Amino acid sequence: MLRFRKRPRRKSFPVRERLWASFTDVFTSLAALEHAPGSLMRTKRDQDALFMRQVWNGCLPVLAYASTSIYMVVSQAYVLRSKTVKKGISYSTLLLLWQNVCGIAVYFPAKIFGWETFAFYEHKQAMTMLPNSALFAVMVYSSAQSIRCLQVPMISVLKNFAPITITLVEWLLMKGRPPSGNVLLSMALLIVGAFVAAVNDLSFNREGYMWMLANVASNVLHLLVLRKLKLNKDLSNTQILHYSALWSLLWLIPVGICEGIFKTVEDFATQTLTFKLVLLSTGVNSILMFLATIWCLERTSGSTYSMVGALNKIPIALMGYIFFNAPANVNNLVGICIGLIGGIVFTLAKLSEMRKGYHEPPPPPPPARR
After folding, report:
1. Rounded-to-integer distance, Cα 265 and Cα 259, Å
2. Nearest one of 34, 15, 53 to 354, comparing CA atoms
3. Tens digits of residue pLDDT in 251-278
4. Is 247 helix (H, G, I), strand (E, B) or coil?
5. What is the pLDDT of residue 213?
6. Whose CA is closest to 162, among 191, 134, 202?
7. pTM of the model
8. Alpha carbons 170 and 224: distance in angstroms, whole number
9. Which of helix, strand or coil describes residue 201?
């Protein structure tokens, strides 16, 4: 019977195994480096594709916020300027109440379908949202008081200082990227365009200027606090919407009672179907506008968000001339053209900054310690 002789097992060589492991680690690192963002091994075509993808991801939230914001202004203007409303009745408080009720109503389907698990009221989360809601209340109230004291064109001029203020705050206090010269130029063009459009309606009113100062300050602080809440991830989007609406109702309900909101509800029952549908649609649009605002703040900077809000006045003004028979003159048209140029300069400046960030080589690694 043949017996096969067992071959002696070779001893392992630690040096060879280490060399093979190092060899495979090199290829693994090269593969990871090739797929890393901003890699030197990425071709120019890949960089351009990544840049266009990032631009698209930034354009979607901006377009969503711009469209919902424009619709909100136009729909509210339709309700507040309707000729079918009885004299002495204002729908401003009813609009705000309805929009906040819709914001609270989102909680129930979110709870039923398991999208959110938070309680209807939690003291800690409510206190976290209190500063943001208080700033929002100051912003709304100061805006109404400034309209009482100043002409609308003058208010547009002063409100356009908000984008510059937010840009400087992000740069100086939040240690963000310094604004480029073209960004500052676009904001200056926006202010000049609003000033030219309002040159015939400029007026000096100390009380109105104080209310506008409070409005711009509360607008900037409201945006910064909201962005901080999102960066810290203290609350979800639904929680921010929920507690903001709850706090707003606390001061809207007594204001509505003092203004005779029950007469407004009686007048609403006698309005046309179109009027009712437009007013009810503002509640749904307020939810979409809030989500678009959060989305825009997550994907872009605060200066971009506020600049989009300022540029919204241009299509709104054009719609006013077309649909609401607003008076137009040469100064208004020249101001709109200057504002459009400012918007184009701002867009090109932001695209240039993004392209520069994607095509710049990554910074060299720090020297190793000896």
Report:
1. 12
2. 53
3. 888 888 888 888 999 999 999 999 999 9
4. helix
5. 85
6. 191
7. 0.69
8. 9
9. coil
Q: Residue 124: its pLDDT value, please?
A: 86
For residues 180 and 352, what is the distance between their CA atoms, to the nearest angstrom?
10
Rg for the chain, CA atoms, rounded: 28
Compute the half-sphere exposure of residue 155: CA atoms within 13 Å on the CB side of its CA. 18
Task: Grade residue 144 by pLDDT with cuts at 50, 70 and 90.
Answer: low
Please report the pLDDT score of residue 63 as a whole number: 84
CA dist list (Å): 108 to 114, 122, 290: 10, 15, 18
Q: How far is CA 281 from CA 157, 167, 241, 287, 322, in A?
A: 30, 33, 18, 10, 22
Give yes or no for a contact between 349 and 177, defined as CB atoms under 8 angstroms apart: no
Structure tokens that stand for 70 in this block? 């424009």
Q: Is the dihedral of CA 21, 23, 26, 28 positive or negative?
A: negative
Side chain identity at residue 254, one-letter code: P
Nearest to 50 by CA among 280, 269, 370, 354: 354
